[in-house]
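for the record, two folds in this file. i put them one after another cuz i was lazy. first one right below, seq on top, structure tokens after. the second one comes after a little note so u can tell where it starts
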Amino acid sequence: MSKPPLFIFLCCLATLNFIHGQIDVLSELEVPQTAPVGYESIVSAKLSEALQSGVAYEIGFWIFGRQLPDQSYSYPIAVFPSGQSISNENVLDIVEAVQPQPQLEVHPPPTYATRGHFTFIVRPDQAYDHVTIALKNKSNQPSPIDFNKDITVTGIAVKPLPSRPKEETSPVKTEGVTHTPPPDKIADRILIDSEKSYTVLVDEIQLGLYDHRRIDNDIVTIYLNGIVAVKHVKLKRKKQFFDLALQLGKNIITLHAENLGKVAPNTAAILIKTKKQEFMAVLESDLGQSSYFTLVYEKPKL
């Protein structure tokens, strides 16, 4: 007698879980960490090695839910890196989904979920030794499922993304370099220091702009050292890249909001890329103030 499709699907998941188990560096907690308001924790795992700042990590897992006889349901998927507890929703600023707008979608028989495996990229801003998989549920209506019993996460795997060896650097030569402090305002906006600073070893970079959370028609302008570098860019899910030339020493990159989109404030994820380095910053600006971060160009040691 032939096996039903659901049985075959679950057998495949069990096989995948075994394969992932060969490289698994996690131990699941009996009780998941509590997610921020509006999210349902499905599973939390303690890492044998903490995620470290300055390294990008890939987190992959399978997730599936119980089928209902005559009703579909779907929930956005979120990944929360944390310490002993999840501090707040802002930690999502360091998490990027590989699949656009990842959701768990479950339909009545004979169909099933549209996708079972999901991958996220985490760029930690500090050490995190736990990871929680959660579903976003901000609806006031009762859910048709029990999140504690009807949702299963399996095959969680975490691995650092490859990076090139860091070049040796020499102290920045200050001779002939002017370190002008940023002005108090740009285009009548008060400037707010994000207190984020990154160092690159080349004077030409690629700056990527995208909206890594809600797409709500945000439009931004980027200032480099007080001068417009990228003008009136509508943020999308897909990254848009622009070439910038840096001065030796400190460079100030400012996010200027041209509008507030559908939800204030205007939030943008900014990638700084060179052939050997990559950094990510998330800035928020509104119609009264603009956030900035510092990018230091150091000449490599010859």
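(here's the note) second protein begins now
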Amino acid sequence: MILLLLFSLTLVSTPAWAQTIYIYEDEHGVTHFTDRQPETEREVTIQRAVAEPEEMLDVRRHGPSESPVWMFRNRTHGPLAVRVALGEQDNVVTQPMLPHTFVLGPLEDRELVTIGPFDRYRSWSYRLETESLPGRPDAAHRPGQPYRAPFSQGARFRIGQAFGGSFSHDQPSNYHAVDIAMPVGTPVHAAREGVVMDQARYFHGAGEDMERYGDRANFVRLLHDDGTMAVYAHLDYEGVRVAPGQRVERGQLIGKSGNTGFTTGPHLHFVVQKNRNMELVSVPFEFGGTNGSGVTPRQGLRLEAR
């Protein structure tokens, strides 16, 4: 049996875990390696972590080729929609019929489809095609109130690029995003309560080469109670202050802004997204203004966190 596994290019990526290493020599000439910043007056060499993108979905095959078992594991702490289909196929039957879209719960690991020969006396072959996106396909945006500006109360920062910005907000996933100019290290706070679905903290470096830097921004993805998700991106190296699976309240500190990934300078990229029938799309939103009123983001607007 010829068996091929094809992963769709629309998979959303997260970084492989790593950590920063501190290297120093003590007064006895002994060299120490530690993942915690040492309390010493001696010179310390910092070796930054090396992070590589990693898919949200892990697919594994078990068992013999004549009766394979395909296991699908959700690496995130939120729902993950998985579309399974067959490409080229010959003498194959599946249960359920494909294509089919499944939803894996947080960290769920299970068999989604059974595949076998229609006629067990003939050879059979197929190509398994898998696509995954964060969030439930039936999510509906119901925020209840305007979003809080995602920085410290009383602080004010300017929106450099708003909805439909000509530089980079030209795709469904980021059309309704805002870029807020702020110095590296600025505290970033949750604009709305939710659960930390995913995060990246160990990327460093930035540039305008999309192929090189497009998936190398540090971020926090918060899952809201209505199934939508907020992404806070371009955070600083080791700038994430929350853990996967953690419940976060509106206004809570979640990280430090930075300049990582595809960017021309330090800023916070903020966007609210939902999974719309296996397409990740951004949705329009408002920030809170005076007296609780809603303010539509626009380029040049100076936001104040209230």
